[in-house]
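User: Structure please.
Assistant: Input sequence and predicted structure:
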Amino acid sequence: MDPALNNLTLTSGAKVRQASIPTEGAFPVNTANKITASRPSKKNNKKKKEDLVIGKTLKTGMSFESALSTLGIPRSIRINRGTEPEMDSISVEYLNHGLRIHALTQNSTIEELEVLPEFKGEFIEGAKIGSNFFELIESFGIPESKDSFIAKYPERGMYIFLKNDTMISVKLFSKNSKILDHKLLIN
């Protein structure tokens, strides 16, 4: 070590020495300390998306924290004002998964799970986005009511949106959900 660097004290008018930054070759090579990082393969990333099963890996009533852990970093987070402070909710959007989750701000469980047209997973019963109406009946049974745009399964808290009798999106609600969407759909 340079003896001039030992016991340094700064005084007014002190001279500053120029130093150079050592190059890579100045350090000894020690292969025992090398760190290698493996990148996740594209196959693994796709597998995670395919593993989403509504009713198994994701469901209404599960903890908000658990859903966030399963889905990862969201695309956006939005706070929605309700008619009363108890009705304020948070919406977390995962466009890469084709999902939105909703929870009341004063509750830590998922009140609504919105399955968007981009969703690539499936329901535990086997149905997927793009399933026709007869496949929906095989998976979920006969709906309580149906019109050209929606099949309602209120006992399951499930509302399937249709286009030409094909499932294009779904809204699932926890039992006795206070989310405004639920109140609008049950009437």
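Residues 43-186 form a domain with the Pathogenesis-related Protein p14a fold (CATH 3.40.33.10).
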